[in-house]
Amino acid sequence: MPDAATDTDRTRAYWDTRHREHDDLASGGHIGLDRAGNEIFYALRLGALLDLTGDLSGPEAPLFVLDAGCGKGHFARGLARCGHRVDAFDTSEEAVAHARAEGGGPRYAVAALDQWRSAWPYDVVLCVDVLFHVLDDAEWARALHNLASLVRITGQLIVTDENTRHRVPRGGYIVHRPLAEYRAHLEPLGLRHTAFRPYGFRENEVGFHVFTRSR
Ligand SMILES: C[S@@+](CC[C@H](N)C(=O)[O-])C[C@H]1O[C@@H](n2cnc3c(N)ncnc32)[C@H](O)[C@@H]1O
């Protein structure tokens, strides 16, 4: 039985070190890719996110977006450039300091997925490549419930994972969970699975699970 507190501390230390030692793309993207590979990986996913969230935003009618586990803020800045109003947070102080220094519109905070509170609901809550790094099941469930509670009715919760039928642990920092586990937690909260959009990037099997809130 893993010690949850130790797992969480170990994960945070891992991310702080990784954010300190790697450039803005490799630290949150794919550590095994070169700079050009990560540029492509991020560009394709930002395009997919814009496709999933719609292309009607502008300064007069922005979407209100939360980027939960934003890393160094690549997606947060990209969505802000496209006219959206973005709140973003991460547990890594190292990553948030970097994101703040880049500027570009989003409001940043240091927080954990199961801690973030907001006085307003979001049109879109994003959580890109974070939940499968949360190894402790109780923390993962708390995080998912909290993120779901932040989505306005008819809004979207977009999380990433493999579209697998079984749990797939990889190395010491990843556990992919089946869609059924996400649905078991989110459907009672009024969020229906409405799409899976694979990254479609080389051998990567992760993709965007879109849940739409109906009540
Ligand atoms: C693979 S990176 C992805 C970063 C960003 N979403 C991106 O795609 O560029 C995973 C991020 O999740 C953050 N993280 C891990 N566990 C977290 C938690 N419980 N709450 C908030 N952030 C967390 C890490 O600090 C790290 O920045």
TrEMBL record:
Coiled coil: none annotated. One of its GO terms (molecular function) is methyltransferase activity. SUPFAM superfamilies: S-adenosyl-L-methionine-dependent methyltransferases. Residues 65-154 form the Methyltransferase domain. The keyword Transferase applies. PANTHER family: TRANS-ACONITATE 2-METHYLTRANSFERASE-RELATED. This is Class I SAM-dependent methyltransferase. It comes from Streptomyces cadmiisoli.
